[in-house]
Design goal:
The protein has 545 residues and is of the alpha/beta class. It is built from 22 helices and 21 strands.
Length: 545
């Protein structure tokens, strides 16, 4: 029997826990688990579901419920007034979070203990195998678990998330210790290394082929390209987060201060957290959904504690994180001038051993197995076997020692077309690139094809060879960012296509902005060349002011 606890330990309101509540409700229903959460979330059960889009339900790996459908889920609710009183006594939400994170609250502890007592009385012949706690644990919860000898598993998702386009959502979780620390991951990695039994050590491009987004696969050669900036700074969503600030006093301002002592502003670029953009009432459409191209535009990147740090390591750039608050911090540099890259063995361990895929994260059988203290090698093998089956990866990746052969088979398993496979196997980059418009895509017969844009004389060139045939093709020049584009020329198998209607700059909405072009009858092989020009929204407005 497992208990799932969803309480608002984040620096946001209780309503922000709604997706976590619904997701845990699903897993509790599927597994027969017990759920403890805020009274508010059950009171507003219907309306919080209405605020979630069908896409988000799918991406977050959950589904909507009716109230009748979840009546069989055993739920216990912490009264809203309890937290209102704690906040009032503390004087502010920030101080309340500091207090709850650093020491046990007597009233909250007693309330939680009474719930545990009720659960034991209702299930006299069962034991509680563990408590899964969403995000960093409050000390009151920790005390109750210690007093009742219940394993405590705080968890959160990593930056590798299905809602962000990755093949799997991966979670980091620790047993009976704090979540926001790299010490546990480093301790386990040292045990893994001491065993001296290594599974295949996958290269950066193989890791991207296994877990990455389809749209970012063409960016792989850019890992060998010359970066545009010396330093990139990734900001957090809040100026301070109490749970983090208790452990280390590093802020985004500190990072910027240190970087500005080493680099000119022209050598630096900053990517603000999406929550910051929203809070400043700016348009998020001008920010790329995926930071991969931006990461590749920098030689090194720094953050106070941004989860993007893991993607920096994945894309083989130098990650500088002085804070110890993130699981992968032990793999990061501390010197803002460093260019040292991550150790591949450590990165493989982190992805395939430390991080946990969604299906296993919410499996009681998995956690009962983890309580038996399997070796790190055994955990590694179980996770890798899961990926092979779940993602339909070729089993040969376990036996093939030749990296190019292994990489090719992974690309085939992703459904990459032959031309893209050959480009990625060549793995070199010898032409100019604009990182703001690094890649574009076409859609033919419902299938998307991405390619890098080659810059010649300031004009972007999209080139693709394929065997598809159709009446029309859809060309998405900007793909995941809003801006303005115009077509200079289009040819199919050397024959020009009339683009006179598209010769002026026009606004391209994020994700959906595209041109529909005629697709002349072709032979078996089709060669498409598209020359196009780009202006940011700011450039367009300045030019037409």
């Amino acid at each position: 029997m497992f208990i799932s606890i969803v309480l608002n330990t984040e620096y946001m309101d209780v309503a922000s826990r709604s997706k976590w509540y619904l997701k845990n409700l699903l897993h509790c229903k599927e597994n027969g688990w017990i759920l403890i959460t805020h009274e508010y979330l059950w009171k507003h059960f219907e309306e919080i579901q209405q605020d979630i889009t069908p896409r988000l339900f799918n991406d977050f790996e959950m589904r909507p419920f009716t109230a009748d459908e979840v009546k069989d889920v055993e739920q216990y609710f912490i009264p809203d007034e309890l937290f209102e009183k704690i906040e009032q006594q503390a004087g502010s939400r920030t101080e309340m979070l500091f207090q709850l994170s650093s020491s046990s609250n007597d009233v909250l502890e007693k309330t939680l203990q009474s719930v545990i007592t009720k659960i034991y009385s209702k299930h006299p012949n069962e034991k509680i195998d563990g408590v899964l706690y969403s995000l960093e644990t409050w000390e009151s919860v920790r005390r109750v678990c210690v007093n009742n000898i219940i394993p405590l598993i705080p968890y959160s998702f990593s930056s590798i998330r299905k809602p962000h386009g990755y093949q799997q959502t991966l979670y980091h979780a620790n047993i009976n210790t704090y979540l926001h620390t790299s010490k546990e991951a480093e301790r386990r990695y040292n045990h893994y290394v001491a065993a001296s039994i290594f599974e295949p050590i996958f290269s950066h491009r193989e890791l991207i082929a296994i877990l990455g987004k389809e749209r970012t696969l063409p960016l792989i050669p850019l890992m060998e390209a010359k970066p545009k900036y010396e330093m990139g700074i990734c900001t957090e969503c809040f100026s301070i987060v109490p749970q983090f600030m208790m452990r280390d006093k590093v802020t985004d301002d500190d990072v910027r201060y240190e970087c500005e002592k080493l680099y000119d502003k022209s050598q630096m670029t900053v990517r603000n957290h999406a929550y910051q953009i929203d809070s400043m009432q700016l348009d998020r459409s001008t920010t790329h959904n995926d930071p991969a191209a931006w990461i590749l535009s920098c030689r090194r990147l720094a953050a106070s504690r941004s989860q993007i740090g893991l993607k920096i390591l994945l894309w083989n750039r130098t990650a500088i994180v002085k804070s110890d608050s993130l699981g992968f911090s032990f793999m990061c540099e501390k010197d803002y001038s460093s260019t040292r890259k991550v150790d591949l063995c450590a990165l493989n361990f982190y992805f395939f051993c430390y991080l946990i895929p969604n299906d296993l994260m919410f499996s009681g059988e998995y956690w009962q197995w983890r309580m038996t203290n399997p070796t790190e090698t055994e955990i590694y093998k179980r996770h890798l076997d899961f990926y092979i089956e779940k993602l339909n990866l070729p089993k040969s990746i376990l036996t093939e020692q030749d990296e190019p052969t292994r990489f090719k088979s992974l690309l085939k398993s992703r459904g990459c077309d032959e031309e893209l496979i050959n480009i990625l196997l060549e793995d070199k980059h010898d032409f100019d690139i604009d990182y703001n418009t690094a890649s574009s895509r076409i859609m033919v017969n419902g299938k998307s094809y991405w390619r890098l844009n080659k810059i010649e004389n300031g004009v972007r060139h999209f080139h693709i060879e394929m065997s598809e045939s159709a009446d029309t093709i859809d060309f998405y020049p900007l793909d995941d960012v809003a801006g303005c584009a115009r077509l200079v020329s289009v040819s199919v198998n050397g024959k020009p296509v009339d683009v006179s209607n598209f010769a002026d700059f026009r606004y391209m909405p994020k994700v959906s902005g595209h041109y529909t072009l005629p697709f002349p009858p072709t032979a078996d092989k089709t060669i498409i060349d598209i020359a196009w020009d780009y202006q940011s929204n700011k450039e367009f407005l300045n030019a037409h002011s």
